[in-house]
Amino acid sequence: MSILTKKKSAMIEVSGVSKSFVLHNQGSAVIPVMAGAELRVAAGECVALTGASGAGKSTLMRMIYGNYRANAGRIMVGGTDIAKAAPREIIALRREVLGYVSQFLRVVPRVATLDVVAEPLLALGVPEDQARARAAELLARLNIPERLWSLSPTTFSGGEQQRVNIARGFAHDYPALLLDEPTASLDPTNRAVVLGLIEAAKARGAAIIGIFHDAEARAQICDREEDVSAFTPQAAA
Amino acid sequence: MSDYNFAYLDEQTKRMIRRAILKGLAVPGYQVPFASREMPMPYGWGTGGVQVSAATLTPEDTFKVIDQGSDDTTNAVSIRKFFEKTAGVAVTEETEKASVIQTRHRIPEAPLREDQILVYQVPIPEPLRFLEPRETETRKMHSLEEYGLMHVKLYEDISQHGAIATAYAYPVKVADRYVMDPSPIPKFDNPKLEMAAIQLFGAGREQRIYAVPPYTKVVSLDFEDYPFEATKADHACDLCAAEDSYLDEVILDDAGNRMFVCSDTDYCRTRREAGHVGRLGEEVAA
Amino acid sequence: MTPLLQVKGIEKHYGARIGCADVNFDLFPGEVMGIVGESGSGKSTLLNCLAGHLTPDAGQVIFDTRAEGPVDTVTMSEPARRMLGRTDWAFVHQHARDGLRMNVSAGGNIGERLMAVGARHYGDIRARAVDWLDRVEIAENRVDDRPSAFSGGMQQRLQIARNLVTEPRLVFMDEPTGGLDVSVQARLLDLLRGLVRQMGLSALIVTHDLAVVRLLADRLMVMKDGHVVESGLTDQVLDDPQHAYTQLLVSSVLQV
Questions:
Q1: Per the domain annotation, does C95 fall within a domain?
Q2: Which domain of life does the UniProt lineage start with (chain B) (predicted)?
Q3: Strands B258-262 and B247-251
Q4: CATH 3.40.50.11310 region(s) of chain B?
Q5: Which CATH architecture has domain B11-218?
Q6: What is the pairing mode between strands A46-50 and A207-211?
Q7: Could you report the average pLDDT of every consecutive run of 10 residues in chain B (286 residues)?
Q8: Residue A2 — pLDDT band, cuts 50, 70, 90?
Q9: Among A29, A175, B236, C55, which residue carries the largest CB count within 10 Å?
Q10: Catalytic one among B202, B262, B278, B281?
Q11: Which residues, numbered 214 to 253 in chain B, qualify as contacts with chain C under a Cβ-Cβ cut-off of 8 Å?
Q12: C 132-161 residues with CB below 8 A of B?
């Protein structure tokens, strides 16, 4: 766990972030989606992003991950400004510091589930047997039957895919985590498991941002809520 | 004397060939292009060797011609007669007495001296030709000393036959620089390529001349775990009992009987005259 | 950190037509860069200029060599560049036939680069060839077979083995999965991903297939009409395209 101690701060800090989409092939329509976004998440905190559908929750999360480009502002994760960082810096950050569990599982075809989950650890140089052991532990905890571990998750049900996605997201102890609807399509048992994983992450000091449709889950593990509608730009004059 | 210029070729042509020879001697193993002339024998019959001999001979020389070691085959005889007629030089069958020896596909058994010149007839001068058909590429490979492909050929031999199967025209590295095809001599002869005489190689159809000066290092290519072996038939000569000469196999009858005789006829004769007798030989009156 | 490759102002013209122009980027060790664009975008021209197959009309391609540090490969002597091409660089062609010797056995194909840099022990060479066949998932007992007896996917994997045996630091790939059917592609991509990660390779991959870059590339450059119109983190360029052409490219991909 030397990777954790290397990073000075696991805090996430968003300041003055704005974004517009310009759809060049649709008459250059400009769609402003966010203005002046502000957010601070400390280590060990779990913050929920709330707001109506389309308000920009996923957009903000993707900007923090570097998946969407911010037009203005600063996004600090562990001392690096994602909005200005070079691709290789963002990749290094994603490997060691910043984890992201999206709503959809996207995998290379024909890779076994166990290897999908082990991959973040392998990318960090963890020995194969150790990485696989950890992957097995998580899959078992998330109630994915062992007989499925050698199969590719592309044929699994939505709920199973989601659990594989989560397992992969929690394989490495990221100091910062972004979770987009982690409990969607899960039954109560597995929902509880996932919440348990998030609690454990909080306890070891991870800064967590989550989007939860499920109000109960939100209430259970989140320390506070941030409504992203506060950052919706006013209609252009 | 005849109506021909000395040794058939005009003086300008001989000069051109001599320049090529000098270049070849200056860069051992490097193939020097030359403007091969039309000779009164077809391509593939030794025109390269003949042109090199013609440019090398002087009226005082004694000339010997062997074809696969033998002085009395049709080709050896006709080339010898050619130079007798056009150059009027003395000819001999004795290796020891010759000053210029033209050979097809063999090196004489008797060690050659500093005052002798060996001229080889070469069919395909380019050792890389079978693996890389493009002349543009092979020229680059030689100039950049990129010879990995040569070892690929040897690797393929071992993987297919269990040993390096090349039995003749076995590629060599000359003076630690150029890879050369020593002409289709049996690999048994390769060690002799390090000799006291000047060695000149002529390819008439392909228009290349190359050379190896006396006492030049010539190493046959191999692998560390499959070293080069100069092998020959595991017999002695049936006429002169020589154990160290390259042998021809002669079928005697329909019953499967055969004999082995020295390929180098002069060497065999010399030994017999010295009193050596092989399994099927007869005492020769001294 | 010194970039492994620094590309400055690369330009190549075909008469009045631009092949590629004004290309600048740095590639760091372990980074995989995808270059995408439609036919005629200049991506293959760019790749060939970078790999030394074409001489650019302007610009520098500075590679951090092991022996001498950063050297401009455009002005390097040909012997040095060819040596680079056999050791620290590798080039995977779209058609395996262009990158293999079809009349030489699989083992000989893989061993050639080793022999070209002085390997002289048959047993060792063969052992390494067999090891690499295993790594690219070709059965060991095919080591003496000619590539003409292999399927397209196997030929491509053999080409990869042949290129990677000298552990190059930079691999150029031109449409590595082009011409292969979908399931074979998947296998090949998976293999490449694994090898890139295990060996810490840097790679420049030209392709028109966005799925390939999503899978393999950390960074992406989008080319149109010889110019780079957008570049950045792969998932960012594909999920949040800024340039009109990139938006068009991304929206044209069929969702299956």
A1: no
A2: Bacteria
A3: antiparallel
A4: 11-218
A5: 3-Layer(aba) Sandwich (3.40)
A6: parallel
A7: 85 97 98 95 94 97 96 95 95 96 96 97 93 90 90 92 91 96 96 97 97 97 94 91 94 92 94 91 62
A8: very low
A9: A175
A10: B262
A11: 223-226
A12: 143-144
Whether C186 and A108 lie within 8 Å, measured CB to CB: yes
Decide if B240 is catalytic: yes
Domain presence at residue C66:
yes
Tell me, yes or no, if C186 comes closer than 8 A to chain A by beta carbon. Answer: yes
Cβ distance B160 to C144 less than 8 Å, yes or no, reads yes
> Alpha helix (H) ranges present in B120-147?
135-143
Residue with tokens 């040569």: B150
CB within 8 Å: C125 and B155: yes
Mean pLDDT of A210-219: 89
The position carrying tokens 């989008």 is: C222
Query: C15 near C221, Cβ under 8 Å?
Result: no
Q: Looking at the predicted structure, is the pLDDT value of residue A235 above 90?
A: no
ipTM above 0.90, yes or no: no
Total domains in chain C come to 2
pTM above 0.95, yes or no: no
- Domain coverage including residue C11: 5-88+170-255
As a whole number of angstroms, the distance between CA C247 and CA C238 comes to 8
Instruction: Specify the long-range contacts of residues A59-62, CB closer than 8 Å, at least 24 apart.
Output: A59/A19, A59/A33, A59/A34, A60/A14, A60/A17, A60/A34, A60/A228, A60/A231, A61/A100, A61/A178, A61/A180, A61/A209, A61/A211, A62/C239, A62/C240
Predicted local confidence at residue A7, as pLDDT: 44
Structure tokens belonging to residue A194: 């996932």
Measured in angstroms, the CA of A88 and the nearest CA of chain C are apart by: 7
Structure tokens of C77?
Answer: 């002597």
